[in-house]
C-alpha cells in the first residue's frame, strides 16, 4: 500500500500484537485490522533468510514507503533505524562513474583516453599495460585488471579484520598490489570481469584531472547539490556517525561496524541511507546529474557472463520479472549488503539493505524485493 501526496506513513510491525500502526501527517493515528502490506511482507521474507536486520524504502514522486525487520544489534530488541546509515559498498561505483562522466561532458577528458595518458607508469607489469586500457574499459569492467579485494586481509577473515580494521591504504599502494597479479585478459569489450581496482584507478584519474580528491569531487558534484545530508565519503575515519545498525560478517558473526574503508576509495567507501540512495538514483536516471549524451553512455550495457544482468558504466541493467529492466547496483562492504535501483526514467526507486553478510537465499530475497516493488509500478 502506498500513501499519496504528503501522507507519509512509517510501518512499525508489532509482532506481539500482530497489528500495524498507521501514522499520518495530521498527527492522528488509528489501529486498523492487519493488512497484507507487500513491502513489509518482502522485508520479512529477507529477514527470514537469516539476516540480522533489514530495511527498505520505495519512492515515487508522491509516495515514500518504508519497512524494516529484525534488530539493529544482536542480542537486543533495538529496532532497525528508520533512516539508518550504512556502508553502501559497490553502489559507490555509480557515484564515481557519474563524476567521471561529468568530466567527460565538460570536455576535460574522454572515455577513450588511456590510463597511461593520465597515470603514466602506474599500470604496468605482469601483462598490465595502461597504454592499452581506456577509461571506458575501467568503468565497464572490461580492462582485464585483477580485483584487489581478495588481497585485503580485513575483508576476508575475522582475524584479518581484527588485525587491520584501522589500517590506511593509499590508492597507489592498492594499485601496486594489483600490478603484482597477472592480467586476467587483454582489454576487450567482449570480455568482462568485475574488479574494484578499476574504480580505484578511476578515482586516481579524477584527482589527476581536477587537482582535488575523489571525495571532494563526489561531495561537490553529487552529495551537496542533491542535499544528501546523510551521505558521506569517510576517508580513513572508521566510524559510522548517526543512527545505524551494527554490521556483522564471517561465519563467526563478527561485529565489523568499525572499519577504515580506505581500501575501497572510489569503489565502495561511501556511507549513505536507503532514502538518500533513492534520491540519488532518481536524480541520475531522471537526467539531473548527467547530460543526455553521458547518461546514454552510462546506460549502454554489455553482457556479464553468468550473472544474468548487463553492465554499463558504473550501473547495471537488471531484468524485471514483469518485462523490461531497471538500472541500479548491488553493494557490499563487510557486514552491509544493499540492492537498489530505479526505473529507466527515475520515477520509481527501491533500495533494501541488510546488516549482515547474506547467503544466496538472502541475496535472492533482496533482489526479489526490488523486482516486485518496481514491477508494482505497472499495476
Kindly name the structural category.
Answer: alpha+beta
Number of strands: 19
Q: How can the largest sheet be summarized?
A: 10 strands, mixed
Termini distance?
12 Å
List low-pLDDT spans. 1-31
The count of helical stretches stands at: 11
Calculate the mean pLDDT score and round it. Answer: 91
Question: What series of H and E elements makes up the topology?
Answer: EEEEHEEEHHEEHHHHHEEEHHEEEEEEEH
**Proportion of residues in helical segments:** 25-40%
The best one-word shape is globular
Structural Rg:
21 Å
The portion of residues forming beta strands comes to 15-25%
Overview of the structural elements:
The strands form five sheets. Strands 1, 5, 6, 13, 14, 15, 16, 17, 18 and 19 form a ten-stranded mixed beta sheet that branches. The chain has a three-stranded antiparallel beta sheet with strand order 2-3-4, with no helix packed on it. With 379 residues, the protein is of the alpha+beta class. The longest helix is centred in the last third of the chain and has 16 residues. The radius of gyration is 21 Å and the shape is globular. It starts with 8 loop residues before the first strand and ends with a helix. It contains eleven helices and 19 strands.
